[in-house]
């Protein structure tokens, strides 16, 4: 009997596609691309967001590789490395350290009449580069859920992201760890508060989504973190000690967030005489 695919488990596997189809959507577009046998279905997905991310990563790696090559080429030109064996070893090390980008290039060592290496020449392999860039943003999901449509399978697979985000939020913003309590009851209370906080976290995410706001809750919390509640204590001329509780003025971005979340009024300003000196 077929069961729901377990993302990352034996029921569903993720691999890079060899023949991606062009797509320019802001979200992943699943395609039914056949099956390995009667039980396993393969879904080809193409994501523009993922493609942009992989392109950015590749550009960064390209910059590092080019910088490393220029440094080695300069050393060869200055005569620091001239022995063919040594230069070949340095080239091999360069390719090993930047293998994902280096495979797109050919590095030739130019020698002189004395068999000393005089120069390094870097030549691009257009076909290799094009083949690699074609795969940006493409991935394949394999599942035994033949009863589901490609869109449904993709949505199930994407629940992995939500699970990962939940654990990340609990361990960072919501303070689930570290736990310094020694008693089991206090540890349980700590975890309970974190889980309750995550429910609020989820409610914020839902409100943002319904309002068409694509920002993550993490970025929202970062933006409102500068809106503070302050406690000011001062002494007047009559030796009375006053305690003021005031809120800082929210900026335009914070007001927009409060409007989306339905926050009508911030905490009111309070004033209290707490002592007569």
From TrEMBL:
Region (Disordered): 1-34
Source organism: Acidithrix ferrooxidans
Alphabetical list of InterPro entries matching this protein: RNaseH-like_sf (IPR012337)
Record's protein name: Transposase DDE domain protein
Bias type Polar residues, positions: 13-28
């Amino acid at each position: 009997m077929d069961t729901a695919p377990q993302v990352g488990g034996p029921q569903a596997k993720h691999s890079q596609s060899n023949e991606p189809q062009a797509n320019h959507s802001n979200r992943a577009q699943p395609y039914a691309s056949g099956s390995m046998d009667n039980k396993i279905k393969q879904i080809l997905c193409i994501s523009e967001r993922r493609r942009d991310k992989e392109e950015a990563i590749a550009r960064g790696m390209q910059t590092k590789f080019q910088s490393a090559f220029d440094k080695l080429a300069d050393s060869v030109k200055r005569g620091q490395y001239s022995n063919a064996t040594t230069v070949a070893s340095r080239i091999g090390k360069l390719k090993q350290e930047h293998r994902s980008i280096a495979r797109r290039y050919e590095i030739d060592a130019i020698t002189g009449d004395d068999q000393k290496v005089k120069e390094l020449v870097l030549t691009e392999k257009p076909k290799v580069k094009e083949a690699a860039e074609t795969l940006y943003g493409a991935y394949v999901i394999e599942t035994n859920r033949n009863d589901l449509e490609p869109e449904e399978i993709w949505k199930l697979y994407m629940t992995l992201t939500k699970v990962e985000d939940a654990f990340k939020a609990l361990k960072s913003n919501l303070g689930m760890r570290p736990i310094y309590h020694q008693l089991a009851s206090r540890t349980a209370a700590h975890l309970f508060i974190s889980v309750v906080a995550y429910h609020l976290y989820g409610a914020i995410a839902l409100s943002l989504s319904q309002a068409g706001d694509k920002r993550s809750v993490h970025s929202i919390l970062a933006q409102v973190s500068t809106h503070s509640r302050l406690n000011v204590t001062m002494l007047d001329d009559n030796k009375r000690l006053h305690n003021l509780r005031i809120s800082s003025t929210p900026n335009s971005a914070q007001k927009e967030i409060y409007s989306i979340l339905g926050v009508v009024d911030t905490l009111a300003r309070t004033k209290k005489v707490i002592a007569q000196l």
